[in-house]
Design brief:
The chain is of the alpha/beta class. The protein contains seven helices and seven strands. Strands 3-2-1-4-5-7-6 form a seven-stranded mixed β-sheet, sandwiched between helices. Helix 2 crosses helix 5 and helix 3 runs parallel beside helix 4. The longest helix has 21 residues. It starts with 7 loop residues before the first helix and ends with a strand. The protein binds S-adenosylmethionine.
Length: 210
């Protein structure tokens, strides 16, 4: 039996152009998202959570789950000893599913990539799985996360491998040159949805805020 291709919801969100379009598509996907991603063997949340545990002491708080979606990581972070995690996402429908899981301390419906509604140095860490990808958020989106993260804190994210090569690597080098952040860890390429035909590989990225 052949693997499912990037069709339906996934194909649509990858080809969306505007943030409003992305939000509407995820609103319509929210109820079946967890089951679909489970069927695709979705790995980003596991990789991100493992990286966070390697770079952030147990109990550090608060943490922002940026592009939290339906809250897959929120559930695991609570189990792993991070008591205060807040969810931010552009999609009201995805946040509504996350809310039902009862693990986040606050919810913010907002777009990454522009001004974020938080004071400087508000978070001990930011974690973001599956958001810095085709058609979603570009490398400049990292800048807003650096502003809201404490010096000494970490940003853990996944980046589509082709985007790492074409823009993120250069952007991170600039952040290092400007002494805003250091690249603490870059994983090898891995496939985020091994049971979905045509999934392009990604990398996990850990930045430390200076
Ligand atoms: C592939 S899902 C990942 C969700 C969750 N992190 C996970 O791993 O299951 C991408 C999420 O990013 C959100 N998203 C896309 N563009 C965004 C933006 N500009 N600002 C905030 N959230 C965005 C979508 O609404 C969606 O919930």
């Amino acid at each position: 039996m052949s693997k499912p291709q990037h069709e339906g919801h996934l194909g649509a969100v990858y080809s969306a152009k505007q943030p409003e379009e992305i939000a509407a598509l995820y609103d319509g996907w929210a109820d079946s998202y967890d089951a679909d991603m489970s069927a695709a063997g979705y790995r980003h949340p596991s990789i991100c959570t493992a990286l966070l545990c390697r770079h952030l002491p147990r109990g550090a708080e608060p943490i922002l789950d940026a592009g939290a979606g339906t809250g897959l990581m929120g559930q695991w972070l609570e189990i792993l000893g991070y008591p205060h995690v807040e969810a931010l996402d552009i999609s009201k429908g995805m946040l509504a599913v996350a809310r039902q899981k009862g693990v986040y301390k606050a919810f913010h419906q907002h777009a990454l990539g522009g001004n974020l509604p938080f004071a400087d140095d508000s978070f001990a860490a930011v974690i973001s799985a599956g958001v810095f990808t085709t058609g979603h958020v570009g490398s400049k989106g990292i800048d807003g996360l650096i502003r809201i993260c404490n010096p000494g804190g970490v940003i853990v994210l996944t980046v589509k491998g082709s985007l790492w090569e074409s823009e993120f690597a250069d952007h991170v080098e600039t952040l290092e040159r400007e002494k805003l952040a250091t690249l603490e860890e870059l994983t090898p390429l891995y496939v985020s949805m091994p049971d979905e035909e045509g999934t392009r590989p990604s990398r996990g990225v850990v930045l430390k805020i200076l």
